[in-house]
Amino acid sequence: MYNELVSKKAKLAVIGLGYVGLPIALEFARKVSVIGFDINAKRVEMMKQGIDPSNELEKEAFDGCDITFTDSLDVLREAKFFIVAVPTPVDEHNVPDLTPVKKASETIGKVIKKGDYVVFESTVYPGCTEEDCLPVIEKLSGLKDIIDFKSGYSPERINPGDKTHTLAKIIKVVSGCDAESLEEIAKVYELVVEAGVHKASSIKVAEAAKIIENTQRDLNIALMNELSIIFGMMNINTYEVLEAAGTKWNFLKFQPGLVGGHCIGVDPYYLTYKASELGYDAEVILAGRNINDNMAKYVAKSVVQHIIKNSGDVKLSKVLVMGATFKENVSDIRNSKVADVVKALKSYYVNVDVQDPYADSEELQHEYGFGLVDKIASDYDAVIVTVPHNEYKDLGDEYFSGITKSHGLVADLKGIYRNRITNRAYWSL
Hints:
With 429 residues, this protein is an alpha/beta fold. It folds into two domains: 2-201, Rossmann fold (3-Layer(aba) Sandwich), CATH 3.40.50; 223-427, Rossmann fold (3-Layer(aba) Sandwich). 39% of the residues lie in helices and 15% in strands. It has helices at 2-6, 21-28, 41-48, 73-76, 99-111, 128-141, 179-190, 203-233, 238-245, 267-277, 283-293, 295-310, 338-347, 361-368, 397-403, and strands at residues 11-15, 34-37, 67-70, 79-84, 117-120, 150-153, 172-176, 197-199, 318-322, 351-355, 380-385, 404-412, 425-427. The strands form two sheets. It has an eight-stranded mixed beta sheet, with helices on both faces. The protein has a five-stranded parallel beta sheet with strand order 10-9-11-12-13. β1, α2 (21-28) and β2 (34-37) form a beta-alpha-beta unit. α8 (203-233) packs across α10, α8 (203-233) crosses α11 and α12 (295-310) packs across α13. The longest helix is centred in the middle third of the chain and has 31 residues, at 203-233. The termini are far apart. The mean pLDDT is 94.
């Protein structure tokens, strides 16, 4: 397969061209012939014009790429090596929603041929590829895994907004259904991953490795959030504590904050769901999830308490939320916990304005029921800076004094204005 791809006798297809799929497709398109497949025709047309719908890549990223963007199964059928990079969300009850990955499996089942390869990159629980996805492909195609086609799993490690840890610079975990497929899949990914690959012993090991990467981060952030709540009761600044503790060589440098997005805030639920299926309740993981999922309510409550203490009438109060995306310097609003902060504030009947230099107002309105303000007012009772966008970092006393009342609060969740706010009340996690 590797030789066929390199000689361009065979084509590689990437299914799902979002934050993960498009960078992978373009990277491969500099080495082999690629078919970029997405079910969203509007997105496909944008990419044909060299526009990244996710606003992550510049137009130059499309230059010099041998790639065909399509939503046609007939075109997709020309490929022999398929990479699946569709999202794997959870529903409102935090139960894994495998609909996208199963639909992608159905798509592959309609086009796969003898001798083809399929590699899944979507984050799933251990066993999902072999137990949930491959049977769908086998049923629709009439082909058998290992015998008629080869399969593998290589977890994505794309970090939106990160221009340093890019696909080529991060070691890629790869796995295959047998020894032959492992070697071929490894060689294919080595075409684009300069850092090299790590060959996992099985597909399940590769799936598990991905799921614990984000679970580990989730738990560490949960600890920081719990410490922040405790230190808040003691009137101690958490960031000053972390700065002091960080002088020890083996102290892990995590910070408190809202935990959203499509990785840390979602992936652990895939592991706890599978554990529950096996009859085990993952107490530590769920405890961390519970702390992180409730931080938005804690933030809202803390701000409202300040308003009650200093102005009295919550229903007449105004709060500005700065930052609506799930992390800094990206336009991605998926699973943004800022939406939970807005919801919690409104449950107290607070009037809330939201501002963000990256987010799309219509998308926010559609997803969460609120949009962005066109103009920031000058009479807020509190300002909550939720996301440390670059555009916010140089703001200071003069700016916040100009948009808040004299009793106003600057709630700086990530501590970017520590020791810089003196004319207004200051609070951080």
